Amino acid sequence: MVRTVGVEEELLLVDEQSGEPRALSTAVLALAERRAEGDSAFEAELHRQQLEFATEPRADMRELAEEIVRSRAEAARSAAEAGAAVAALATSPLAVSPSIGEGERYRWLADKFGLTTQEQLTCGCHVHVSVESDEEGVAVLDRIRPWLAVLLALSSNSPFWQGQDTAYSSYRSRVWGRWPSAGPMELFGSARRYHDEVEALVATGVLRDKGMIYFDARLSHRYPTVEVRVADVCLDPADAALLATLVRGLVETAARAWRAGDPPEPYGVGLLRMAAWQAGRSGLEGELLHPATMRPAPAPAVLHALFTHVRDALEDSGDLDTAREGIDRVLKNGTGARIQRDAFARTGSLHDAVTECVSRTRG
């Protein structure tokens, strides 16, 4: 049976004239709910300058890609009615003073984490892939760890922060890493050890609940899925579909390795953090740490190594050609980080760069 995949995307609400983020999520969500007659796929997020949608679980990646495009278009329509636009940007290129959303949970985060909460106006993409059990899920988590940094590089879409070029391709990943539970995870070895670790982290009182387990990949606390959380939101919806396709390939490849008795790579968290930093810094423009060696290698070679690693799973799910074409496309056209920088280089205006990204968000 082919595993199902669901995608959660966070989008930035911006002023169509100035390009600056706008705190209009309440109005946009109300309009989206009215248009959907009460059954909206959109939700509020930590800041009022953003909103989130979630797709249905899909086995067919073409259907998933189409739903991502539809959901972005619906977000754009509702935002336009509220006097804004949506942009699939992982950070705002222009300066912004974020507004914390309403609700007791968000107030708790603001009180507990102070400036870290205030500065978390970041938009990510979370990919859920179905697993048969927690035991299989944890086996998958243990085996996909070295490849998560490659997914970050592929999705990198946040080169600007508060009006400045950060020199990173994914500065969102650096900001997100300020949460105490964010980042790479250790080898767990069993579902029991995973759950014991989660319970211990929540019991410290530093985290509010299991929803604050911000590992780069985790067992979802709501669905029978592995949830890969490492990626920036992708500017191009086709790249989001490619990301989801590769994540499903990784999950299936890891599950097969577990069933065959193949052990996970025993890399420590320190090396995985180095790989994530390098991916966030260079995206697909320079070198990455190759998951097989943890030594520098050209980013295209590492991305092709990921394709080779999951090739059998992609072939069995019917996604081989689509994934190959997607990888070739992103290497040719560039990630969102490159597209943003190219737009700024052409125009000298971050506003114009945001305007171009608003158009590209819908594909």
Q: Order of helices and strands, N to C?
A: EHEEHEHHEHHEEHHEEHHEEHHHHH
Form type: globular
Largest β sheet strand count, sense and barrel closure? 7 strands, antiparallel
CATH-assigned fold name: Creatine Kinase, Chain A, domain 2
Ranges where pLDDT stays below 50 over 5 or more residues in a row are: none
Percent helix: 40-55%
What is the domain total for the residues?
A: 1
Q: So, CATH architecture?
A: 2-Layer Sandwich
How far apart, in Å, are the first and last alpha carbons?
Answer: 31 Å
CA gyration radius, whole angstroms:
19 Å
Structural class: alpha+beta
Q: With helices defined by DSSP (H or I, 4 residues minimum), what is the helix count?
A: 15
Roughly what is the average pLDDT, rounded to an integer?
A: 97
What is the C-level CATH assignment? Alpha Beta
Catalytic activity: L-cysteine + L-glutamate + ATP = gamma-L-glutamyl-L-cysteine + ADP + phosphate + H(+)
Protein name: Putative glutamate--cysteine ligase 2
GO molecular function: glutamate-cysteine ligase activity
InterPro entries: GCL_type2/YbdK_subfam, GCS2, Gln_synth/guanido_kin_cat_dom, YbdK
